[in-house]
Structures are given as structure tokens and as C-alpha cells.
Amino acid sequence: MQDLFKQLSRPHVILPGIATAFVIALGSRQLASLPGLKILGPMIIAILIGVLLRVIIGLPAPLKPGTVFSSRWLLRGAIMLMGARLHFGKVMQLGPYVLLLDAVVVFAALALFAGLGRIFKLPPRLTTLIAAGTGICGAAAVAATAPVVEATEEETALAIAVIASLGTLGTIIYSYIYNAMSLSPAFYGTWVGSTLHEVAHVVAAAAVAGGEASDLAVLVKLGRVAMLAPAVLFIGLRQSRKGRNNAKVAFPLFVVGFLIISILTTQGIIPPAQVPGLTSLSAFVLTIAMAAIGMGVDVKAFARVGFKPFAVGLIGSVFISLVSIMIIRVL
């Protein structure tokens, strides 16, 4: 926290980078309204623009303090505000079996990807980020997990790129499967909501099956969002245990803030009329943070890692999808 106050005490130093990320975020929102880019969403577009800007002009020294501030502190603030979208009452409407399905998907992803990462010899931090994005809620989960595992900006951006690519591919494949097979809207909506990566992917894939499937898919997805706090806390504790000989202990206090805001929303202390505004603010601040992360990426780091992260993400996504099908059949 001392670092936060130190940076806030020098606004003239951090403002140029924040302003640049802010402009990118605004542009990303506009681009995300275009038909061909809508499925990516503004956060993914912002990180891509940030990377492109870094490739073209590099990262000028005056922009660096603000981009570091945005990718660290604005990111944490946005994750806390995300708690406003999580109403525990709505999550409980799913019932114990669907909540169990969501929990199995999330923690199976964390376990499975850890094994896949070792097989493909990927850095554990990158593997954990891809696991969180696949199992929980896409780029937002990657962003929430990155500070906990102390991931680099390159690892964070690469994990988000994997999630965006596979989620978009999954949306197309799921829609094709629904049209090719006789799946009930309830089954399809539950399957989509429990396995696809981003909320945008869930909405797009479920739309082909009509309103019933769409409503159920979004609600099931909300159950996975509810797993963000316990999953990230689990990752933080696991990270601390691995580094038990170090003085520094990674504990995600901003996730506690996420939970507190969720509870305030559920109890009505935060009025329902304010929830849409807080949710929109969270999404926009997160988009600013994504732009800053993109600006901090060294593209050469992507080439060093190669295709392995995408292979791990693909294998893991297929496995999680199959696990979900088997559980839904049983339920």
C-alpha cells in the first residue's frame, strides 16, 4: 500500500500513461460494437491495441509509470468492483447440483492444467493463468490471478490471447454442435455456461438455442464467477506454501474486497439501481488495465514460448467440456 500512496503523490508522473491507456480503452469500446469484433469484447481489443502500440513506438519513458500503475492498481480496483455483478441470491437459484458442476469445472481446470503445464514444460505461472481463464471467467480471472502468482505482463497477455482465441473457436464449435445434434435448450445452456471462457462467448454461443438456453447459460456462468474468490484465494495459499521459505507471502487482499462488495450487493446495502453503473465502471477500468498490460508486453517473449500455451489451452478446454457433459448427464 505504501507503493500505491507513493505513486498517487506524484500524479504528474503517472497521468501520461494512464491517459494513454484510457484513450485506448475508449477506442476499444467503440471497436467492440462492430459486428466482427463484438465477440472479442473491449478488454481483448484493448490488450491487442496496447501490444500493437508497443510494437510500433515502443514504450516511451514518460508513459511507463502510468502503465505500471494501471496494470497493477487499477487492475486490483476493477476486480474489487466486479463484486457488484455477483448477487449470491441469484447464484443460489441454480441449486446445489449446478453449483457443484461449476465448482468441479473450476477446480478440475486448476488441477488438469497444472499437469498439462508440466508435460509441455510451460512456466507454472503461465499455466495457472490459462487454467483460471478457462475454468472461471476468461480475461477477468486471468487479471485477478496474475498479481497473486506474480506473473509478468508477457505471461498475462499471452494467457489472455489463448483464452480469447480458444473461447472464440469454442463459440463457433458449440453453435455448430447444437445445430447438428438434438440437444435440449436446458442441457445446451448448462453446458455452454459451465465451460465457455468469457461471458461474451457464453452469450454468443447460447443465443442459437433461444431465450431459455441463454438465460440458463448466463446464470450458470454467474456461478463460475462466484468461484473467482475461493479459487484465487486457493491459488494464493498454494503460492504462499510453495514459497514458504520466503519472507513475502502472496495473499490477494483485493479478492477480499471483491467479496465484501458482493456481500453489500446481495444485502441491498448497495442499492440495485447502482449495480449497473458499478458493473460498467468495473468493466471500463479493467479495459484500461488491459490496455496498460498490452503496452507493457515485449512481443519477442511470445516467440520464445511458441505454440505450447495454445496446445495446453486447447487440450484443457476439450477435457473440461467433456467432464461437464458427463456431469450434466448424471445430474
Describe this structure in words.
The chain contains 17 helices and no strands. Helix 13 packs antiparallel against helix 14. The longest helix is centred in the middle third of the chain and has 28 residues. About 2% of the residues have low confidence.
Low-pLDDT sequence parts: 244-250
Percent helix, as a range, is: over 70%
Structure summary, number of beta strands: 0
Order of helices and strands: HHHHHHHHHHHHHHHHH
What characterizes the major β-sheet?
Answer: none
How would you state the average pLDDT, rounded?
A: 86
- How does the overall form come out from the CA principal axes? globular
Number of domains: 1
- Count of alpha/pi helices: 17
Based on CA atoms alone, the radius of gyration comes out at 19 Å
Cα end-to-end separation: 46 Å
- Percent of sequence in beta strands: under 5%
User: Could you say which structural class the secondary elements and strand pairing correspond to?
Assistant: mainly alpha
In short:
The chain is mainly α and 331 residues long. 79% of the residues lie in helices and 0% in strands.
Structural key phrases:
0% strand; 331 residues; single chain; mainly alpha; globular
Write the layout of secondary structure elements.
Blueprint: H1 2-8, H2 11-31, H3 41-57, H4 64-81, H5 88-92, H6 96-120, H7 124-137, H8 139-149, H9 153-180, H10 185-195, H11 199-206, H12 211-226, H13 228-242, H14 253-266, H15 275-295, H16 300-305, H17 308-330
Helix pairs in contact: 2-3, 2-4, 2-15, 3-15, 4-8, 4-14, 4-15, 6-7, 6-12, 6-17, 7-8, 7-9, 7-13, 7-17, 8-9, 8-13, 9-11, 9-17, 10-11, 10-12, 10-17, 11-12, 13-14
